[in-house]
Amino acid sequence: MKVSYLPSIFTILSLLFGYLALGLIIKGNFPRAIFFITGSVILDGFDGTVARLTKTESNFGVQLDSLVDAVTFGLVTAIMIYLWGFQETYPQMGKVVGFIFLSAGIIRLARFNVLKEADAVPSNIFVGLPIPLAALSICSFILMLGEPLKNTTDLILFAIFVVLIAIMMISNVKYRTMKKIRTKHSLPVLLLLAGTVALAINFPTYTLPALTFSYVISPLFFFLLDKIRKEKRQFPEDVDATPTPDRIDT
Question: Where do the domains of the chain lie?
Fold first, then answer.
């Protein structure tokens, strides 16, 4: 069995951040817990990148990554959904909503592993919303509202939001990754990432929700972009559409 130690270090660090976030959630310190979950998402992205760069990708790493994601982004987020949203008002509803999110995340990870093993989809495509981004979607909602919900209407809207995110995880909607960015575009992308990190550090309450929700709806943007490109190929613009008069021989 091939064990890739360097990428696995990032994966275990991601698990550590999830573990620390869980402790903070139990204490009711949700903003700081969101900080650790966001850090876990970043580490989760690094382990795959490190594995590809060092050519140490392995089935062990894939399975370890999925198990850590199930705990950090599935279980920890489900507990946060319950404790932040429903514990003091509708605990039974909270248990159901949290379990829906958790089960959808586990199903999403199982399908990802099967598709990856079968090499059924391109490496730059995710089928369904990735569970780290689903967790960040919940974190963004909590970060924007701040205090736990008390109003029944707000709780119902939150429950609907969580269920919609769960549905997006197990849907067939295709999300793009950054794995196949062309080399000539790498420097602008690095500059954009640096600016994004700077904004996220200085304005996390606004930057994290904006980035997360932009990614959630990104398939709609790419669908419209592809449709425009297809229409342009079907109906190419003429260089000169003005009709030329018939030649008159004299």
Answer: 5-180
Residue with tokens 């990190």: 197
**Burial class, 15, CB count within 10 angstroms (exposed 0-12 / middle 13-18 / buried 19+):** buried
| pLDDT of residue 248 exceeding 60 | no
3-state DSSP of 103-151: HHHHHHHHHHHHHHHHCCCCCCEEECCCHHHHHHHHHHHHHHHCCCCCC
Domain 5-180 has CATH 1.20.120.1760: yes
193 in Cβ contact with 182 (< 8 Å) = no
Maximum distance among all Cα pairs of the chain, rounded to whole angstroms: 97
Q: How far apart, in whole angstroms, are the C-alpha atoms of residue 71 and residue 64?
A: 11
Cα distances (Å, whole numbers) of residue 203 to 51, 175, 191, 210: 31, 26, 18, 11
- CA–centroid distance for 98 within its chain: 18
Residues 5, 57 contacting (CB under 8 angstroms) = no
Q: In the structure, what pLDDT confidence band is assigned to residue 233 with cuts at 50, 70 and 90?
A: confident
Q: Which of 62, 79, 71 is nearest to 105 (CA)?
A: 71
The contacts of residue 227 (CB under 8 Å, 6+ apart) are none
Q: What is the pTM of this model?
A: 0.83
- Looking at the DSSP assignment, which residues form a beta bridge with residue 137? none
